[in-house]
UniProtKB/TrEMBL annotation:
InterPro entries: DUF397. Residues 120-137 have a biased composition (Low complexity). Residues 1-24, 113-137 are annotated as: Disordered. Residues 27-81 form the DUF397 domain. This is DUF397 domain-containing protein. It comes from the Bacteria. It comes from Streptomonospora salina.
Length: 137
């Protein structure tokens, strides 16, 4: 009989010593509506039951995942809403400037099936037009 439990299995190197790490095997990734297939990077965010968030480049998930505590995520959202991460408009296209000023609605959509897991996520979130708080990229 196998005595191994999920808690005792070998963790990937990035999980060792990382108290924020979460298993993303069954994560539902939501893609920013501003991330287009022809973009060099595609921003995807997953939320876990305990409020932690994970962020990755959906085009290259093998490059790694960033994990945020609920407090860190809240601080990021507040900063984004307050313009803390805005780019000076002289460096933006007219469309990008309109998005940054909030003139164009931004929403998260369920990411297509991941190359990593094959999971497409919860289609009901896409149909419902789920809004990603503070999503600017």
């Amino acid at each position: 009989m196998d005595n191994a439990t999920p808690a005792s299995r070998d963790l990937p190197p990035e999980a060792r010593g990382n108290s924020k790490w979460h298993d993303t095997t069954d994560a539902v990734w939501k893609r920013s509506s501003l991330s287009r297939e022809n973009s060099s990077a595609v921003v995807e965010v997953a939320e876990f039951e305990d409020g932690y968030r994970a962020v990755r480049d959906g085009k290259h998930p093998e490059k790694g995942t960033l994990f945020f505590t609920p407090a860190e995520w809240d601080a990021f959202v507040l900063g984004a809403k307050d313009g803390e991460f805005d780019i000076p408009e002289e460096y933006l296209t007219a469309e990008e400037a309109a998005i940054q000023r909030g003139e164009v609605p931004v929403r998260a959509v369920v990411a297509p099936a991941s190359r990593e897991t094959g999971r497409a996520g919860d289609a009901s979130a896409e149909e419902g037009g789920a809004q990603a708080e503070g999503e600017q990229s």
